Amino acid sequence: MGDDILDRAYLTEMRQWVGDGVFATLMAQAHDNLPPVMAEMLNAWQHGDGAAFLDLAHRMKGAASSVGCRALSLAAHSFMRDPRPAETVSGAEIEALGELTRASLKALRELADQPQEMPVPARPQ
Predict the structure, then answer these.
(1) Tally of domains in the chain
(2) DSSP output for the chain
(3) How many angstroms separate the CA atoms of 91 and 99, rounded?
(4) Average pLDDT, the chain
(5) Is pLDDT of 2 > 60?
(6) Widest CA span in the chain
(7) 24 CB-near residues (< 8 Å, 6+ apart)
(8) Structural domain boundaries enclosing 94
(9) What pLDDT, on a 0 to 100 scale, did the predictor assign at position 120?
(10) Could you state a single Gene Ontology molecular function term (predicted)?
(11) C-alpha radius of gyration, the chain, whole number
């Protein structure tokens, strides 16, 4: 997965647009927001609540996408598009989504800890 886990171009542009302080706040909010959604998805799956599971998959897709977690957003979206009933999702699939959530948050943390890269103009101005 590596470089595909995050949409680095989107995150670099966001960071340049909002600045380091706001970017750090947004990344901290991702750490506050994504794990509870994952926990709620797990709970809905464990209780066989397919409708809640799909609603939470939609929430995860949007939350992940808004902070550049490309792979997590795509994985959540795949649950929404899957023709199988949500109740038939396997434990392995849920565990993989949990692992992807943790990996995404780790990648965001590492990116946030790196200094901002400033683009160099093609020619002096």
Answers:
(1) 1
(2) -GGGGS-HHHHHHHHHHHHHHHHHHHHHHHHHHHHHHHHHHHHHHHTT-HHHHHHHHHHHHHHHHHTT-HHHHHHHHHHHH-SS-GGG--HHHHHHHHHHHHHHHHHHHHHHHSPPPPPPPSS--
(3) 12
(4) 90
(5) no
(6) 61
(7) 112
(8) 2-113
(9) 46
(10) protein kinase activity
(11) 16
Q: Which two tokens stand for residue 107?
A: 């990648």
Asked, for residue 17, whether it belongs to a domain, the answer is yes
Q: Place 1 in a pLDDT band, splitting at 50, 70 and 90.
A: very low
Structural domain includes residue 118: no
- Please check the confidence at residue 87 and state whether its pLDDT lies above 90: no
Q: CA of 35: how far to CAs of 8, 20, 27, 43, 110, in Å?
A: 21, 23, 13, 12, 17
* Model confidence pLDDT, tens digit, residues 8-18: 999 999 999 99
CATH number for position 53: 1.20.120.160
Q: Is the pLDDT of residue 122 over 80?
A: no
123, part of any domain: no
Give the pLDDT confidence score for residue 114 in this predicted structure. 81
